[in-house]
Design goal:
Elements lengths: L1 H20 L2 E3 L5 E3 L16 H8 L10 H7 L4 E8 L8 H12 L3 E3 L7 E8 L2 H18 L5 H6 L5 E6 L5 E6 L15 E6 L17 H4 L2 H11 L11 E6 L2 E6 L5 E6 L4 E4 L15 E3 L9 E3 L1 H13 L1
Antiparallel strand pairs: 1-2, 3-5, 4-13, 6-7, 6-14, 7-8, 9-10, 10-11, 11-12
Helix pairs in contact: 4-5, 5-9
């Protein structure tokens, strides 16, 4: 009897230890998913992991999630860093280069989700990293981005080195939106992020479009009639009913805005950024395509269906790398 008691206690200790060591990934809505071992024989990414990927596995931090990773990352001082690791729906951690390619491929599609589900799960790694490993991580980011971006013209690469440029946005029609900090002689680098910005539209050859300035800090306002779309959505599909309970939710996906039923997540309507309605539930033949595979609604290509917004420093890095490729 005593032996059996000791065995049961040991078994309980082993079980609790295994549970404590279980790696878990989360989506943006606190749904959790177990993470498979990186060296499992059936891992589809076997052979693609770099030393940085393995570092991330070794420095898994269960205390970091979507609710606090931004604040924690901002508080760290190198060599302590925080890295996000995406996990697919089968529980396999994606190598950083695979994650980056997957991210770009999803940004360049015209898919609108059938329901409000995450695109991937993720966990976070935190710890001190060697300069060599950190350089490897940055190389993966820069080369992967440079290969995916359209060719960056010389004028944009030069403009991106200006300290007053906050962001550069690539538009599908070849134009660019460039955001500038509204700085003065009293502005220091320390408070740049809190400064107001003005955005301008540039043509592909670097000409600033006259009267294109937008000072509300929202680059979307430069190219898309955002307010018109919102007005139409709110008029036709209000967020609450007469009892003030949730009725409709809005979802922005790659340049489209949709109204979804709050309970069922069924798509009621989809609008383009110019205010054009491209899908109406009551008119299913109006131009929205449902592929046989299910899972997503694919909307026909339109002029401004997605964007790619990146920091100006990355523009310059991508330009330099593109020249060497």
């Amino acid at each position: 009897m005593r032996f059996l008691t000791i065995f049961v206690l040991c078994l309980g200790l082993l079980t609790s230890t295994a549970m404590a060591n279980e790696m878990v990934a989360y989506d943006g809505h606190s749904n959790r998913h177990g993470v498979n071992p990186i060296d499992a024989d059936d891992n589809p990414y076997q052979g693609q992991y770099t030393a940085v990927d393995r570092w991330a596995f070794e420095h898994y931090d269960e205390t970091i999630g979507w609710n606090n990773y931004t604040q924690i990352r901002a508080s760290l001082v190198f060599p302590e860093v925080l890295i996000q690791v995406d996990v697919n729906f089968d529980g396999w951690a994606m190598p950083e280069r695979v994650r980056l390619d997957d991210l770009w491929s999803r940004r360049s599609t015209t898919q609108f989700p059938r329901d409000y589900r995450p695109e991937n799960y993720a966990f976070f790694a935190r710890g001190e990293i060697s300069p060599d490993l950190w350089l490897m991580y940055q190389d993966i980011q820069e080369v992967g981005t440079a290969e995916q971006l359209p060719g960056i013209p010389t004028w944009l690469a030069a403009l991106a080195t200006e300290p007053v440029v906050k962001e550069v946005v690539f538009l599908p029609n070849g134009n660019f939106v460039v955001g500038f900090y509204n700085i003065d002689d009293q502005t220091s680098d320390a408070n740049l992020e809190n400064m107001d910005t003005t955005h301008y539209l540039y043509t592909a050859d670097g000409q600033r479009v006259v009267d294109s300035a937008v000072t509300d800090g929202n680059w979307l306002s430069v190219s898309w009639n955002f307010s018109r779309t919102i007005d139409k959505l709110e008029a036709q599909y209000p967020k609450v009913d007469v009892s003030s309970s949730p009725k409709t939710m809005y979802l922005i996906v790659r340049g489209y805005m949709g109204a979804l039923d709050y309970e069922s997540r069924e798509i009621l309507a989809v609008f383009d950024w110019d205010g054009t309605q491209v899908y109406d539930k009551t008119k299913p033949d109006q131009g929205i395509l449902i592929p046989d595979t299910g899972g997503h609604l694919t909307i026909p290509e339109r002029n401004f269906n997605y964007c790619r917004a990146i920091a100006p420093s990355l523009v310059k890095q991508a330009y330099d790398i593109q020249k060497s490729l």
